[in-house]
Specification:
The chain has 135 residues and is α+β, with helices and mostly antiparallel strands. The chain is built from three helices and four strands; from the N terminus they run H-H-H-E-E-E-E.
C-alpha cells in the first residue's frame, strides 16, 4: 500500500460512485494489490485517485510514453462525482479501449465539470491511461 493510501477508510463509499465500498472497488487497485480488469475500472480508479489525492496511482497508471515527469494536484479542487457515459472496447479481452466520462468538482464556491474521452491500452499486461480529448 502506498503512503498516500495507507490511512484510507476501506469501508467508506468508493469515490467513483460504483455503489461499492473503497475496499471492494478502487482501493485494491490504488494499493497495487490487483490490476484493473477493464479500461473502465482503471478510469474509475484514476478518478478515485484524483478524489483522494493519490499522485502515485495516477503516475503508475499512465502510459510511460505520455506520462508527465511530475504531477501537481490542485488541493483546492474536490472531485465528487463521476458519470461514465460510454465505453468502447476495453474489456479483459481487448488491447485498447475508450471511456467517455464527465467528472464534477468543486473549488471553493465554484462548481465545474470535466468532460473527456480517454484512451487506454494494455502495457506490460495491465491497463494504462494513454491520453484524452477534453470537450
Amino acid at each position: 500500500m502506498t503512503s498516500e493510501s495507507a490511512n484510507r477508510d476501506v469501508s467508506a463509499r468508493c469515490p467513483c460512485l460504483s455503489g461499492l465500498v473503497l475496499g471492494d472497488c478502487c482501493g485494491p487497485v490504488l494499493a497495487g494489490e490487483r490490476a484493473a480488469p477493464t479500461a473502465e475500472a482503471l478510469m474509475r480508479s484514476r478518478f478515485t485517485a484524483f478524489a483522494l489525492g493519490d499522485r502515485n496511482h495516477l503516475l503508475v497508471s499512465w502510459h510511460p510514453d505520455t506520462r508527465p515527469d511530475a504531477l501537481d494536484l490542485d488541493e483546492s479542487v474536490r472531485w465528487y462525482r463521476l458519470d461514465i457515459e460510454s465505453t468502447a472496447a476495453g474489456s479483459p479481452f481487448d488491447a485498447e479501449g475508450e471511456v467517455t466520462f464527465t467528472a464534477l468538482y468543486r473549488r471553493g464556491p465554484e462548481r465545474g465539470s470535466l468532460h473527456e474521452r480517454s484512451r487506454f491500452t494494455r502495457f506490460e499486461g495491465r491497463w494504462v491511461y494513454v491520453d484524452g480529448i477534453i470537450g
